[in-house]
Amino acid sequence: MKYALILFISLLPVLVHAQQPDDLVHWNKRHQLSWSDYQGKPEANATAAASTATYLSVEYSFKDGKLGYIITCSFSRSKSWGLHKNDYILAHEQGHFDIAEIFARKLHQRLKEYQFDKKTYQTDLRDIYENTMDDKEEMQNKYDRETNHSINREKQAEWLQRIGSELEKLSGFANY
Prior knowledge:
The protein has four helices and six strands. The protein is of the alpha+beta class. Keywords: Hydrolase, Protease, Signal. It comes from Terrimonas ginsenosidimutans.
């Protein structure tokens, strides 16, 4: 028996249909963001130096009681923008993309641990996904709050080190 279930963050289906094929950049440890990736237009009353739009999506399938899935961690060129473009601010924005990757790996870890239950799998998988997204948003907000959107240089340096350590700690789940 084969089951298929696709879950995306609420805006991703709309985003994907509106995007050009080369709009999404998938997270890759060898590719750091550059200001040329930021092609969006800031809102008229924007007060932030920059904005980085990241997305996590997952497609699930079941065959013979085994869970299969594809996780995607992406950055949107058309939804991301920069008003003040320098290397320091870019490093902060890369931090946001790296936090999204942390949670792609955590999602992979949680799904790998999941035991298929024919009666509850839809609810179980939705809960795993939603809890992971809630955790991701909480960390993104904490990152901005504690660094004051990168203004606090000491906290910014601490956070970039913390993000790097977390990516390393979860490196065993990078092969999603």
